Amino acid sequence: MIAVEELPSLDELHNLIDSVASYPVNAAALADLATAEGADRRVIEFYRSFPQDEAFANAEDLTARSEQIQMMSTEEQDQPWEVLRSPEE
């Protein structure tokens, strides 16, 4: 999991998504594109954290899944330490 302070903003993710030329695209290609486009290190690391063969069928799929992961990561790390360390019921 990426630390909250290391997460890219949704605007940064959308900027990269807007520059994808064709679909389907996988996470490895997104990390490479982010590097080539001069994206912030946080964007590059965000897509490197996905399984590299993870494929996105179209822009809507990529946007939805990127936003979901970004928000889930933020919510999880905003939890108190006790909640994160407690056993599952």
Descriptive account of the structure:
The protein has 89 residues and is mainly α. Strands 1-2 form a two-stranded antiparallel ribbon. Helix 1 runs antiparallel to helix 4 and helix 2 packs antiparallel against helix 3. The longest helix is centred in the C-terminal third of the chain and has 19 residues. It is globular and about 45 Å long.
Could you provide a short overview of the structure?
The chain has 89 residues and is mainly alpha-helical. It contains five helices and two strands; from the N terminus they run αβααβαα. The chain has helices at residues 10-18, 27-36, 41-48, 59-77, 81-85; strands spanning 25-26, 55-56.
Key phrases:
5 helices, 2 strands, mainly alpha, single chain, globular, 89 residues, two-stranded antiparallel sheet
Which structural class should the secondary elements be placed in?
mainly alpha
Looking at the chains present, what oligomeric state does this protein adopt? Answer: single chain
Large-scale geometry: globular
Q: Stretches where pLDDT falls below 50 for ≥5 residues?
A: none
Q: Beta fraction of the residues?
A: under 5%
- Quick check: average pLDDT? 85
**Total count of helical runs of at least 4 residues:** 5
- Helix share, percent: 55-70%
Largest sheet features: 2 strands, antiparallel
Question: What strand order characterises the main sheet?
Answer: 1-2
List the helices and strands and how they pair.
Blueprint: H1 10-18, E1 25-26, H2 27-36, H3 41-48, E2 55-56, H4 59-77, H5 81-85
Antiparallel strand pairs: 1-2
Helix pairs in contact: 1-4, 2-3
